[in-house]
Write a structure and sequence with these properties.
Shape of chain A: globular
Order of helices and strands of chain B: HHEHEHEHEEHEHEHEHEEHEEHH
Family (chain B): Belongs to the BMP lipoprotein family.
Helix content of chain A: over 70%
CATH architecture of chain A: Orthogonal Bundle
CATH topology of chain A: ABC transporter involved in vitamin B12 uptake, BtuC
Helix content of chain B: 40-55%
Oligomer: heterodimer
Pfam families (chain B): Bmp
InterPro entries (chain B): BMP_lipoprotein, Peripla_BP_I, PnrA-like
Number of domains of chain B: 2
Distance between the termini of chain A: 10 Å
Number of domains of chain A: 1
Shape of chain B: globular
Membrane topology (chain B): Lipid-anchor
Radius of gyration of chain B: 21 Å
Number of strands of chain A: 0
Largest sheet of chain A: none
Subcellular location (chain B): Cell membrane
CATH architecture of the largest domain in chain B: 3-Layer(aba) Sandwich
């Protein structure tokens, strides 16, 4: 991701901030249009997301999902690949988590199940990304199309498995049995006493998400593989000329990407719901695209963007609860505006800002 | 509430004081499933029931539409913390959340539609969809000239197979050699709200020779009924009375009275007649039924009406037992 000619704090801090403010201003107009007070709405939203322990807990819970799916999209970005399949990879990743938990939860404590569940999530998510990757690498089938198609295949596969194979007998609910203690990640509330998160389901997966962020940074910027991925993304022809194998890079990048998506299921399945259920991904995979765009495909940016979207989810829920005139669809409009301004219209204010910052500066030295 | 109290007291000169005070005590809430409040079907029926209660009694209610699974518990707790009671959760997917939160708030009355939770403060309301589907199956078989009828479901899950299975039994009870085509719309939440695909599935069934098609697919079913109307065939509605959507093309509707159940639950709480436990609403209890009104009077001849009413009476008396798919996950 090129930083252009701007100082990094402008590129990573000021521009996203301006985009965000613009999104909120437009949202405010919409709120005004339906006859509510936008200032009150913002106050409820921010209070709901950050004003009390439980709200913060929910914000971080959602953020955990977004960090995983955001990292997944970002890794693929670096190789110039657009992985739209986070939704399906996370869904199938849930299968890996659930199988590990169902097999082990009655015999071993959670910390024994955890590595198996992590492996299960990553392997299943990666496996789901492998076929589109292979098709792209060997057959030139466009990854955007194939990953989207694999989302639909995953929906069908999971409904079939949940209804016919994994559902508990005698229940009409398309879901597995609830895991015992050995298949549950501890809630943050139970393992620390600094902050009281109330009944929020924020759990140990948050720590895993932060570790994953650090690992992604190391892989992309501090390893030979990462160098290859970035070179390939910046200029595929040059990378081939330099002796790198495009097929290998595409497949490995997509495996990492799919594995990260799959690990989102740890937070939802092992951390919160404690059972595999239908449609648990609920769009987190797609929001990951916006998170990666807004976070500039950098782990730190992704963590911040993920927290922002966590705030929008949790604050939005409180807003819909407190102000019945603002329905759940309105919240989606606000989230959509943020995505629009932060992603699609990312360059709206850039030329003006470049003009403000460039005359006084010599051509910037581009840091990695 | 205070205003309401004052008005009742002044107008009725204290006569209705105790009732009004009781009324002021309840603070009902509805939690919809992922389909949302205006899904033209199941959740909307709950909304209709709550609105009816509001119109009848003047008591307002709160409601919430969830966006994801984590919000189920969160919304229930939010309601409970604010002292809302009774809190009614719509849809079987809410079961785990209701069970958890009902344990945390033993003094608050909860209710759930389409699932059973065994707790002293929870009322569980379930419907015998197979019975209602059976009698519309009887009507479908009698109305069909080709001996082939169709079924369009939303998602391929147990609940919808229960509808399909009851329907099939009803059809077979009239014509044992009849053919029933079954199609499901999709595998995501969109399956409940995809009228275009519903219409296409219905058309493909018409192409195979079906001339009556029953749907259990929420908003998708509007497309099914539309396709039946366009092709000059017959559709059968579900959940609400959909006879009026395409008068003359909707043979009947299988009514699932979620609206009555919601309004009744609120009224019971208001009148201090609350009870927990399981309410199984079938034909006998009026929880499911078929719809006969001006819109379909010309489609239902006397023989058909007699046959459907007989099937209904037989089920109520126990002479005919409709197999419930959910009991053993098979359909005879």
């Amino acid at each position: 991701m090129s930083a252009g000619q701007l100082p990094r704090w402008v590129d990573y801090g000021l521009i996203p901030l301006i985009n965000l403010i613009a999104a909120f201003l437009v949202s405010g107009l919409v709120v005004l249009l339906i006859g509510e007070n936008p200032i009150d709405a913002v106050r409820v939203l921010i209070w709901g997301a950050l004003g009390f322990g439980e709200g913060v807990g929910f914000t971080l819970f959602y953020a955990t999902n977004f960090i995983f799916t955001g990292l997944a999209v970002a890794v693929a970005f670096h190789a110039g690949l657009f992985n739209i399949g986070g939704e399906g990879q996370a869904y199938v990743g849930g299968l890996g988590v659930a199988l590990a938990c169902l097999a082990l939860d009655r015999i071993v404590p959670w910390w024994v199940t955890l590595p198996v569940a992590v492996a299960g999530a990553a392997v299943m998510g990666a496996a789901w990304a492998f076929i589109p990757a292979w098709l792209q690498a060997k057959r030139g089938s466009h990854i955007v199309i194939t990953t989207i198609m694999f989302n639909f295949i995953s929906y069908s596969l999971m409904v079939y498995l949940l209804v016919n194979v994994l559902a508990k007998p005698g229940s009409m609910q398309p879901e597995t049995r609830t895991f015992e203690e050995g298949g549950r990640l501890p809630f943050l509330n139970d393992i620390q006493s600094l902050v009281d998160f109330g009944t929020a389901p924020v759990n140990l997966a948050l720590v895993l998400a932060l570790i994953a962020s650090a690992l992604v940074w190391v892989i992309i910027w501090r390893t030979r593989l990462g160098y290859e991925i970035r070179s390939f993304g910046a200029n595929a022809t040059a990378a081939v000329y330099a002796g790198m194998s495009p097929a290998r890079i595409i497949i490995i990048t997509m495996l990492i990407s799919g594995g990260l998506s799959g690990m989102m299921a740890l937070n939802e399945i092992m951390g919160s719901q404690h059972r595999l259920l239908i449609e648990f991904v609920a769009g987190y995979g797609f929001v990951g695209i916006a998170v990666a765009l807004m976070g500039r495909a950098h782990p730190v940016g992704i963590i911040l963007a993920a927290i922002l979207f966590g705030m929008l989810y949790q604050g939005g829920a409180e807003l819909a609860f407190e102000m019945p005139a603002i329905s759940r669809d309105m919240i989606i409009v606000i989230q959509g505006l943020v995505i629009l301004f932060a992603g699609a219209l990312e360059n709206l204010f850039r030329p003006a800002i470049v003009r403000i910052f460039t005359p006084s500066r010599a051509p910037a030295v581009q840091a990695g | 509430m205070k205003k309401l109290l004052t008005i009742s007291v002044s107008t009725l000169a204290g006569l209705a004081f105790s009732a009004a005070a009781m009324a002021a005590d309840i603070n009902p809430a509805v939690l919809y499933d992922l389909g949302g409040k205006f899904d033209k079907s199941f959740n909307e029926a709950a909304f209709t029931g709550a609105e009816k209660f509001k119109a009848d009694t003047g008591i307002g209610y709160r409601d919430f539409e969830i966006q994801n699974d984590a919000q189920r518990e969160q919304a229930l707790r939010n309601f409970a913390k604010r002292g809302q009671s009774p809190i009614i959760a719509i849809g079987f997917s809410q079961a785990n959340a209701v069970e958890k939160v009902a344990k945390e708030f033993p003094d608050i009355q909860f209710a759930i539609v389409d699932s059973v939770i065994d707790l002293p403060n929870v009322r569980s309301i379930v419907f015998k969809e197979h019975e209602g589907s059976y009698i519309v199956g009887v009507a479908a078989a009698l109305a069909s000239k080709t001996g082939k009828v169709g079924f369009v479901g939303g998602m391929d899950i147990g609940l919808i197979r229960k509808f399909a299975c009851g329907y099939k039994q009803g059809v077979m009870s009239v014509k044992s050699d009849a053919e029933v085509f079954e199609n499901m719309t999709g595998d995501t939440g969109a399956a409940w709200n995809d009228p275009v695909k519903g219409g296409e599935l219905a058309k493909s069934q018409f192409d195979k020779g079906a001339d009556v098609v029953y749907h259990a697919a929420g908003g998708t079913g509007i497309g099914v009924l539309q396709a039946a109307h366009d092709a000059g065939k017959l559709g059968i509605g579900v959940d609400s009375n959909q006879n009026g959507l395409f008068p003359g093309s909707v043979l009947t509707s299988m009514l699932k009275r979620v609206d009555v159940a919601v309004a009744k639950t609120f009224e019971d709480a208001k009148n201090d007649a609350w009870s927990s436990g399981v309410q199984v609403l079938g034909l006998a209890e009026g929880g499911v039924d078929w719809a006969l009104d001006d819109n379909n009077a010309s489609l239902v001849n006397a023989d058909m009406k007699a046959a459907v009413e007989k099937a209904k009476a037989d089920i109520i008396s126990g002479t005919v037992v409709v197999h419930d798919y959910m009991a053993d996950n098979t359909c005879p």
